């Protein structure tokens, strides 16, 4: 029998094993975190419809407590504080935390909360689930789709906050989403436009980034599947799944088949 990994002896080791491990307990823990993330995202997306209800602030502060606890856990298991704060998602979580703690003052920046969707795709269990569902070769496609999805809702939140906030919450959000999709796809019906110079600049940036993400998604769909495996000789990262030699330097590769 292969030697069993030693049991973690400290809280930091146990947390690190739960966050990054691939045993049954770690997978259950990461899956639970992902489900909670999805519930939080659903609350954020429903925010325009719920913000006038008395329970809104209660849920808001509960989510703030949860995100603060997660940030503390990530800090506890990080090899260094500098490396932790080098991750963009950490800064997103910090800013989201501020919007939750001070909703009356930072509500205009609440649209950034949608970036939590991106955090779901960064969890190790996400790619593990794709592999177990037989979608190993579609990881890049799913990632590109998530990036486009996050961008659509970030822009929708931005447009709603700065251009449609005076309208009814439901109508304003739908108008903002309609404008975003029409702009990103360059359909440009023209029935909803953003006023002034700031509106024109917003439309330009939305079109440029949106088209880039669409192209990225199209490339991920049509290009051959490649695995990430650094060549020991030249460092080339991406190779064909059945590659025996590195295309850059000819070094013999030993790419794991991930059980397939």
TrEMBL record:
<feature type="domain" description="Potassium channel">
    <location>
        <begin position="150"/>
        <end position="222"/>
    </location>
</feature>
<feature type="transmembrane region" description="Helical">
    <location>
        <begin position="89"/>
        <end position="107"/>
    </location>
</feature>
<dbReference type="Pfam" id="PF07885">
    <property type="entry name" value="Ion_trans_2"/>
</dbReference>
<keyword id="KW-1133">Transmembrane helix</keyword>
<feature type="transmembrane region" description="Helical">
    <location>
        <begin position="141"/>
        <end position="164"/>
    </location>
</feature>
<keyword id="KW-0812">Transmembrane</keyword>
<feature type="transmembrane region" description="Helical">
    <location>
        <begin position="201"/>
        <end position="222"/>
    </location>
</feature>
<protein>
    <recommendedName>
        <fullName>Potassium channel domain-containing protein</fullName>
    </recommendedName>
</protein>
<feature type="transmembrane region" description="Helical">
    <location>
        <begin position="25"/>
        <end position="46"/>
    </location>
</feature>
<keyword id="KW-0472">Membrane</keyword>
<dbReference type="InterPro" id="IPR013099">
    <property type="entry name" value="K_chnl_dom"/>
</dbReference>
<feature type="transmembrane region" description="Helical">
    <location>
        <begin position="58"/>
        <end position="77"/>
    </location>
</feature>
